[in-house]
Amino acid sequence: MQDVVESEFQQQVERLHRLTVYMRWSMVFVLWLTVGLASLWGFRYEMSLLKEHFTWAALRYGIMFNRLPSLGLAFCIGLTLSVLYWQTRNILWGRSPKWQQRLEKQVLRIRHQGAQHPLWHWVCRQ
Prior knowledge:
Blueprint: H1 2-42, H2 44-52, H3 56-64, H4 67-93, H5 97-113, H6 120-123
Helix pairs in contact: 1-4, 1-5
């Protein structure tokens, strides 16, 4: 009986982790659709010039004189790389004990709150 309860708990922890991964990638996707596309639109003239005559100096000046699109692209690239690094680290070396403990505490909180918790249907489904 204890093994069944423990197995169910571990499945719920795994579902919460999977949901966390999906949500992080969804956030990256939405960020690219909003900020990333707007930033690329801000670079449209510089990109047309770079397509004809690419030089590192032209790229540098394009970035320097378009600070807001540059910051937007840097933010999108940074967030994408951080999520990619986080997921790769979890795949190669497993979840850290601290992260595992945090997931377990969150599952216990979701179970305690019951169906009122927004994640209950995804984590604690039967």
